[in-house]
Design brief:
Elements (H helix, E strand, L loop, with lengths): L1 H15 L6 E10 L5 E12 L3 E3 L5 H6 L3 H22 L4 E4 L2 E4 L11 E5 L10 H12 L6 E5 L2 H18 L4 E7 L7 H5 L4 E4 L1 H4 L6 H16 L3 E4 L5 H9 L4 E2 L8 E2 H9 L1
Helix pairs in contact: 3-4
This protein binds ligand C2E and calcium ion (CA) (2 copies).
């Protein structure tokens, strides 16, 4: 009974989290492994819950999916991220890189406007509803951000749960010039058929593979095969969860374009990133 009560209170609180302005977006850089330029920032949601501190997605995303508020949360994050990128674009800082775990201006950044994008996670629940494309269009219009600065991260559960709807919706989203990333690749079914059936631009290799790549030959061979297959099919590859220079060097050798992980930087809030850039 007590557990049920706790769950019910948490559900209620989560339903009101947006209205009470308790959600936050943190940004983790994605780096071009060869030049160390920041090519994109992944928007990651947090819940500043009164009395409990900053909660991470593993503590509330599953619940948000269960009670049906995940689509509102994702759309809120998408809007925040688009606005934030617009603001950074207007600051005109040139290219960014990372040093000592922080995002800083790239020393030799020539002025052509940076092409840095923003990655936003989309729960598979969106693909069971029909308003994603409309919401998406209005967010782009309101924030004035061009679609090619956006990368939408989806997982293969989208294809398993709503294959037909997903294919149609992705085709519509592609008309805005956004890019589609297949997140967490290597976990779950990782069916190779998705890679050519759906309009995927970038594959993100899950960190469970990346983290064994310097000690486990089998993981290394799996990652080598994934990268080679993606390239053959015309897709780029981002490796998640890079924590050591050895892992980065191996991935660079294998031809992996981009990487993300604590070796470069953890996710931080937008204000902190802005402050570091202004130093
Ligand atoms: P993800 O999409 O795989 O996001 C990357 C997660 O890996 C983030 O955790 C990030 O902080 C963590 N990470 C990054 N680099 C490293 C590393 O080098 N080592 C380790 N051990 N971890 C690293 P976070 O922020 O806790 O997010 C967890 C998951 O929550 C995300 O996994 C994503 O699936 C989900 N999520 C986050 N924000 C949203 C959102 O706005 N909407 C939806 N639907 N899901 C979200
Ligand atoms: Ca992701
Ligand atoms: Ca991931």
């Amino acid at each position: 009974h007590r557990q049920a009560q706790v769950l019910m209170r948490r559900e209620q609180a989560l339903t009101q989290a947006i209205a009470y302005n308790q959600l936050r977006v943190h940004y983790q850089p994605i780096i071009a492994l060869d030049t160390r330029v920041v090519t994109s920032l992944e928007a990651l949601v947090r819940w500043q819950k009164p009395g409990e501190g900053l909660l991470y997605p593993d503590q509330f995303i599953a619940l948000a999916e269960d009670i049906g508020v995940i689509t509102s949360i994702d759309q809120w994050v998408l809007r925040q991220a688009c606005q934030q990128l617009q603001t950074w674009q207007q600051m005109g800082t040139g290219a960014w890189t990372v040093a000592d775990g922080r995002i800083v201006r790239h020393a030799c950044s020539a002025e052509p406007a940076p092409t840095m994008a923003i990655n936003v996670n989309l729960s598979s629940n969106h693909f069971a509803k029909n308003n994603l494309v409309d919401t998406f269009a209005s967010i782009l219009q309101d924030t004035g951000l061009e679609g090619h600065y956006l990368k939408l991260e989806i997982t293969e559960s989208v294809f398993i749960e709503n294959a037909k709807e997903a294919a149609a919706m992705l085709a519509e989203l592609k008309q805005f010039d956004v890019q589609i990333c297949l997140d967490d690749f290597g976990t779950g079914y990782s069916s190779l058929s998705y890679l050519h059936k759906f309009p995927i631009d970038i594959v993100k290799i899950d960190r469970t593979f990346v983290q064994g790549i310097d000690t486990d030959d089998e993981k290394l061979e799996i990652v080598r095969a994934i990268i080679s297959l993606c390239h053959t099919l015309g897709m780029a590859v981002t490796a998640e969860g890079i924590e050591t220079p050895e892992q980065r060097d191996i991935l660079l050798d294998l031809g992996c374009e981009c990487g993300q992980g604590y070796l470069f930087a953890k996710a931080t809030d937008g204000a902190t990133i802005t402050r570091n850039l202004q130093r």
